[in-house]
Every structure is written in structure tokens, then in C-alpha cells.
Amino acid sequence: MALISSPLIGAYSVTSPYIFLSSLSETGIQDLPELRTAPLLLVMGMISIHVFILWSINIGLLKLTDSVNERIQPVVRIFASYAIVLILVSMAISAGGPLQRHDFGLMRYYPIIGSITNNTFVLLLLYLVVRNQEKAQLQIKNAALKMSELNKKLELLLQQVQPHFLFNALATLKMLIVKDREKASQYTSRLSGFLRDSLTSDTSMLATVKEEIDRLENYIALQKMRFGDAFEYKSSISADFYEKKLPGFSLQALAENALKHNNFSEDEPLLLDYEEKDGLLICSNSFTPTHEKTHNTGLGLSNLKERFTLLGGKPPTIHKNLKDKRFSVILTPLS
To answer: I need a labelling partner for 229 at 20 to 30 A (CA). Which of 1, 135, 172, 275 fits?
Structure first.
């Protein structure tokens, strides 16, 4: 800003002194030929340097008064700025040499008036620059606070997912203990391994489709111990699509919902189908809703919708096809 504004203010301020210097010959002053013939660019250059010095003084004062009380800081800085400028101009006039022998009329006040005017321009520009910087910093700070709040919400939502799974897993274990103790023991070992892998895996808010499919297949392997051939799973996803991102534990949550809210058996198995189509991930299952009352924590689809929204994505779209008995959740990857 200082480098740009200094020559601009210099060009603006050069008119009066240049006209004055050009008219010295008309005043009968003959002993200052170097001033009478001073080129326009030279005069403008001198004033530009003068303005640049004003910039340096005010920027220095801005840093020096940084620790001063915010209420009185502007007053102290402005007062100090004008005081320093007036002292320097007075010293320059006193060292003026031949100029002091002549009476230039009102023009003798030009150095003082010009310096005060230029310093006022510099102070106003500096004020605008500082205000813009403060505004930008405030916006960055607010954005950081919003991001922090967003991360906290996502963490809370993500923390709900695993307890939701654990609740269902313990209910399954309880049933297996009653029906088949040996299978219950195997299930417990498999469950501990699954939980250990979940705890040691990346717990970031986002996961690749490949990571989600791996988690899903581990979960399905666990559920196979309970249901056997009562449900089937298949996926049709290209290698390129594997790098897309989803909220963590999305596919597992959808599989849990399907297993929890549908009737199925070995004679009429539940089909879980995960298919990539037109840049979307279509998660479908056969739709045979159970009429039994189950404890619903309300964390499945609503949790997933909220996480997609908080991460700036499109919420999942839900389709129920009663004719074909299909329930589908369409996911739009986040990247």
C-alpha cells in the first residue's frame, strides 16, 4: 500500500509547489536557479519520498503502540504521528539554507500544510488497511469457531454409532447364550476382534468407500455367525469409486437397520445389495418389515442424514418400492 499510494499522493500534491517554483523568476529571485528549473518528476519524486517516510513513521507507531490500551491507542498514535511530522518539518525548514533569506508569502507554510495533509491521507489509508485486516482476521476466527463446533457435532454423532452397534451386538450375544453356547463363545471372540479393529482404525470423520466396504464385510461376517444363510450380501463397485469419501461407518449403519427392521429366514433370505450407479452408491435390501415392536434408538438414518449435512454433502435419499419389496438408500459421495 505504501509503495502504491506514495507516488499517487506525490502526483496529487505536486501541482502547487511546481507552479510556485516555476514562477520564482517572476518574483525577482535570481539566486535559486536550481529551484526555478526543477523538473516536474523530480519534485513529484521528492514528495513521494516524503509520503513514504510518513508511511514508515505511522506503521512504526502502529507497532509501538500495540501494547497500549485499545481505547486510547488511536489517540496516542495520531497525536504522536502529527507531533513527529511537525518536528521533522520544522527541522527541515530550519535547515533550509538560502530559502530562509526570501519571503515566499503564504507559500512558506506549504511544507507544514502539505505534510499535515499528506499525513492525514496516510492515516486514513492505514486505518482502512488495519480495519480490513481486522475484519479478515475476525472472519477467519469465526470460520474456525464454526469448524470447531461442526467437528464437535460430528464427533458426538460418530460416538453414537458404535454404542448403537454395541447395543445390538450385546442383544445378539444374549440370544445366542440362550440358544447355542458354543456359537455364543465364537461370536464373543469375533466381536472382540471386530471392536478391537474398530478402535485401532482411523477414527476420522470421513472414510473411503473401500474402507467402508471393508468395515461392512467384517460386520457381515460377524452377523453370519448369528443368522447363517438367512441373509445374502453382494456389491458391485468399481476400483475408481473406492476412492470416493463417505461419513465413517455409513454402510455398517445401513446394514444394521436392514437386519433390525426386516423379517427374514433361510427360506426367504434378506438380500443386501451395494451398487455403484451414475456416481452414486445405491444401498438396497429386500423389504419385508417386521411387525414386532423393537426398541428403536432413532440413531440410524437420522444420524446418517445429519452427518452428511454437517459435512456439506447431500443428505441420503430414501426409496421404498412396496411393489418390488425393495428399500433403497442412495448415497452421494462427498468427494
So the answer is: 275
